[in-house]
């Protein structure tokens, strides 16, 4: 089970001064690879397909914190609600309400991050600033979700100055929203940004959760 423990230790060293956490993105990788990284000390794993995450959860240690990082369909929330620790890509009030409902059925509170569209590409999911504010204005009275912060994906580009600008924009938005909607609370502190290719820039710009796959598990093969 190929897991790059040298890269794992390197990433952990980079995170330490920033007090950021690693979400090890294990999508498409076998349970044995996850177990190998677990044995090295990792506890947070990210998946982006519901069925795959449910299967792996059944096979692996119960103290793993499972983060759902993909696009979650409302009708599938019920399958992961019994165990999911955080949902990174919430981009509608309807989805947030469904997570609240399913979390309540399981007697749980589920951490959620609202996904903001920061990249220039049209295809990526996420809210713009106006939509984000509108969602938050209507998100009161959902006791079984905890809106923990924001998530974003930078443009897929070699222009690292642009990537940095996009991360900086997301951080500024988090600060503004925290001030407007979460003043005096201890929530809305999380900022999920940065992947294998750009996590160091993300850390410098205020990331608290980096989502790293290929650096740890090798390139993915979707064939
Ligand atoms: C796959 C994926 C990652 C990890 O990407 P790597 O480039 O392999 O580190 C991070 N975030 C999301 C949302 C993903 O789907």
Automatic annotation (TrEMBL):
Keyword tags: Pyridoxal phosphate
Occurrences of domain Alanine racemase N-terminal (ranges): 7-220
A Pfam family matched in the record: Ala_racemase_N
InterPro entries: Ala_racemase_N, PLP-binding_barrel, PyrdxlP_homeostasis
Modified residues (N6-(pyridoxal phosphate)lysine): 27
HAMAP family per record: PLP_homeostasis
Family classification: Belongs to the pyridoxal phosphate-binding protein YggS/PROSC family.
NCBIfam families: YggS family pyridoxal phosphate-dependent enzyme
Role: Pyridoxal 5'-phosphate (PLP)-binding protein, which is involved in PLP homeostasis.
PANTHER family recorded: PROLINE SYNTHETASE CO-TRANSCRIBED BACTERIAL HOMOLOG PROTEIN, PYRIDOXAL PHOSPHATE HOMEOSTASIS PROTEIN
Protein name in UniProt: Pyridoxal phosphate homeostasis protein
Native organism: Chitinophaga caseinilytica
């Amino acid at each position: 089970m190929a897991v790059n423990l040298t890269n794992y230790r390197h990433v952990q060293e980079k995170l330490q001064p920033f007090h950021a956490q690693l979400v090890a993105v294990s999508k498409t990788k076998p349970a044995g690879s996850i177990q190998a990284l677990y044995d090295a000390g990792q506890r947070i794993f990210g998946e982006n397909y519901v069925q795959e995450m449910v299967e792996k959860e059944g096979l692996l240690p119960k103290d793993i914190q499972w983060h759902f990082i993909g696009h979650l369909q409302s009708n599938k929330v019920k399958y992961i609600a019994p165990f999911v620790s955080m949902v990174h890509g919430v981009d509608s009030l309807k989805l947030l309400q469904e997570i609240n409902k399913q979390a309540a059925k399981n007697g749980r509170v589920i951490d959620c991050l609202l996904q903001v569209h920061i990249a220039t590409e049209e295809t990526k999911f996420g809210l713009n600033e106006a939509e984000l504010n509108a969602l938050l204005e209507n998100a009161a009275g959902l006791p079984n979700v905890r809106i923990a912060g924001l998530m974003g994906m930078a443009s897929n580009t070699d222009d690292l100055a642009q990537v940095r600008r996009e991360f900086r924009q997301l951080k500024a938005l988090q600060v503004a929203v925290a001030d407007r909607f979460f003043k005096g609370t201890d929530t809305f502190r999380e900022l999920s940004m940065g992947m294998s290719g750009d996590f160091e820039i993300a850390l410098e710009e205020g990331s608290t959760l980096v989502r790293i796959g290929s650096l740890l598990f090798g390139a993915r093969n979707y064939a």
